[in-house]
Specification:
Jelly Rolls, Cupin-like domain-containing protein, 27% strand, 4-stranded antiparallel sheet, 7-stranded mixed sheet, globular, binds 2-oxoglutaric acid, binds fe (ii) ion, alpha+beta
Amino acid sequence: MIVLDEIERRYKLSSHEFTKNYVGQGKPVIISGVIPSWNGFSQWSLKYFKQLSPSLNIYAKRFSDGGIEVCRLTMEKYIRLIENYEADCLNNSSPPYCHDLPLFSLIPSLIEDAQPFPLDYLPEWYWDKWWRYCQFFLGCSNSITPLHFDCLLTNNIFFQIVGRKQFTILLPEDAKYCYRRGWRWFLVNPENPDFNKYPEYKNASPIKFIVNPGEILYMPSGTLHHVRSLDMSISFNIDWHTRKSSLNALSASFKGMPIQNSYYNLLLAMGLVFKIPPQVIFKFYKSYLNYVS
Ligand SMILES: O=C(O)CCC(=O)C(=O)O
Ligand SMILES: [Fe+2]
């Protein structure tokens, strides 16, 4: 078991070291020096997305204790809401958060902007059309994603492009102190924990840090994370399994993982362990990208 009191930061980490010392050890890390060499890094902004595809239909979410409310609107309308909020946050209500949007599939020209993509951080199985597995997060400052882990128990490589985000993360061993609700959400608010209601949280060891534009965050499978946007922000992630994490995730089918998640994990394990090609698996996996919350 690893004990961490702060996150490591590495410049242009090699894929060999990434795989051995971070993925292999279940250790989070922030990697700088990779995203800034992408073709379109300095071009990406909400205005740019609006110009590329104003009438694109997207969805945005509001998180509350009662659940997640989803609303649908166009890219143009959403970005106007964000711009108005940033210009005058006191007189405009805070817009919903565009969360888990497969934007590379919706605006394919963005794929070229993210080249050279660090494919060698991922298992080779993902190299073909890697962008299909990515989900975007667009939002205003102060957008929040409450404490959770990623629902298939995948590894997560998180790309911060515009704006800063503050992460509070906990290693999987601390889940027992965070008061779980359902499969993946937790009741504790790590930014302002209510120790009367959640006394066990005193035993947890949260790590808090900022991810800056142009940085990559790696979170191992099962890492709990709470995320606050400090600025208007554009990020995307790729959730992915290794052979080992796909088998571990399958064994979680016996520990409360919803059956639908086990189905998607079985598909990924068939790809990673039994080498069934991604072209075959993706047909069945595609619906996952709308299923995640
Ligand atoms: O950026 C966020 O608000 C949430 C990110 C997240 O939960 C993820 O990448 O899994
Ligand atoms: Fe997440």
